[in-house]
Structure formats: C-alpha cells, structure tokens
Write a structure and sequence with these properties.
With 140 residues, the protein is mainly β. It has no helices and 13 strands. The chain has a 6-stranded antiparallel sheet, with no helix packed on it. A 5-stranded mixed sheet has the order 4-3-5-6-9, with no helix packed on it. The N and C termini lie far apart (67 Å).
Amino acid sequence: MALLIQFTENGAGIKLALDKQRTTIGRDASNVISLDDELASKEHAVIEIIVSEKEIEFLIQDLNSTNHTFVNDTPVNLHKLKDGDLIRIGMSDFRFISQDPDSMDETAQLYKTWIPGVFYTGKKEKKTKKKSSKKKSAKK
C-alpha cells in the first residue's frame, strides 16, 4: 500500500493511505485529503492509481490550481510518482512512499531545518549491546 507522509511544523509525519482509486487533495472538505491551507485551491490535485498487468502506477495531476502542484520543486500538470518524491501543494509538503510501511525495518525521524517549510529525514540507529572485554594487565 502506498501512502503520503504529510510534514508538520513540529516535525511529526502524518501518514495518509492511498487506498482509493482516486484521492483528491484540496482545501474543500469534500476532498479525500482536506488541507487547512489558504494557498491550496478547493480542488487542487488528484492522485490516481493505474493498474496494468506489468505494474501499479501512481499519477498526480494538478486540477488547474491557482498556485500549481510541485513534485521535487518542479511544477507539474501530470506526473508519475516515484518512491520518495516530494510533493508541495500550497504550503503543505508530502513525501510519496510506494512501499508497505509495515515492511520498513527502520524508523525515520523527521527534522526541521532553519529554512521555513524544509525538512529532512534521518534514520534512528538500532542500538546493539556489545560485550565489554576488559583486559587485565599484569604488574611486574
């Protein structure tokens, strides 16, 4: 299952499942993903799942919004999403994840930078216990 992770100001990520054939995004409450964002159009963008014999594709389409839809800082009309793509709608930022989140074996931590609206991820390292071996030195 694919998902969007919405970045928040406190650094937390909100997981939004893309489990419908068509996921609408915008300011209006009728959208599947409704944004409290004045820079987002009422009906801003849509993500559609295209299933073929070979693969499953996720396409994002701008719905003639006033402030455009951006993927990896490039304005798009129609774009095939790839794992890790960064999507910006108004002042809202998302990361597209194409794999099952339960299969992720490491937890990513979201960090805010000094640049407004820019975040980066870092993975928590798993701590392993090491047996300490103390060498005894013989005194002569």
